[in-house]
Amino acid sequence: SDPMPAAAPLPWAHRGMLSLLAIASFAPYPYATFTPDTARDLHAALAIVDGVDYPLAGSVIGGLFHVGPLWFYVLALGVALTHSLAGASLYVGVLAALEFPLAYLTGKTLGGPRTGFWVAAAAAIPGTAAVESLTWSHVNLIATAAWLALWCAANAWRHHDDPRWVLGTGAALGLALQAHPTAIVLAPLLLVQIVARRRCDAGSAVALLGAVVLAAAPFAPAIVDSFGRDNGETAMASAIVANVRQSGISGAPAIVHSLLFTIPDLAAGAYLHRGGVPGAAWTIAQRLIWLVALAGAWRSALRGPRTTRALLALATVATLAAISFV
Q: Cα 103 to the chain's mean position, in Å?
């Protein structure tokens, strides 16, 4: 790590890198293609702006259940400010691009500006933002909300006597869950203060309970809206039971391969020719990056400081949970 006073200005190289990543992320959004999900979200946002309807239930997930309506109201603000479809798209792009400064702040909190620089750079890999900008809906804010939760959790680790950061982690997790419920894999972050303090006293328990309430609170309007009618919750429960009965680990290798290779290849294919020297160079570089990352993680797990080992453990648990979910 490389300590620096909290109030010190960002180095110019760091500012330039963050600006480049953010601009490259949100610049294509005005040219995004609208999908049925985009149209649904815009319809709800326009209804709010025009005062026609104020929905209590949000987007439908997998045709099974509704999240809360928070995303519709966030989008309505962009529609009200821009009064155009391209402006609303750019508004979503700006929100999505916030993942990079939040990733920088997370790394900076844990290890200083140099760590922040590399964490933000790593957030641009495997480059899924290049694909996400082809269209947009609530899912485009998953990364931003996830990094907000990680930043709050990093501060909860560093300032483990301050319960406000645990509450902030819970609130950010609630936002991420509204972007998509698969963000539930970040739930172990709520335990970071207890892990850091190596005990669970009354103060930590109260903070944890408050964080859980804040994470669940955005679902409250949808739950209220479901009273007296079935918004798909019965179908969701049946699907969950069926999936649990059929669950197994046989598909785990394919999921890991997609995460490490298929998705990066998809993003790189938008910029590089798959064949010939460019394709071979990309393949070699990609494999070397993962080998170096794996070696670094292994070394940190064996010899790194307690903070690094704890973060690696949380990341491993979250990754395994995500693979199991998928």
A: 10
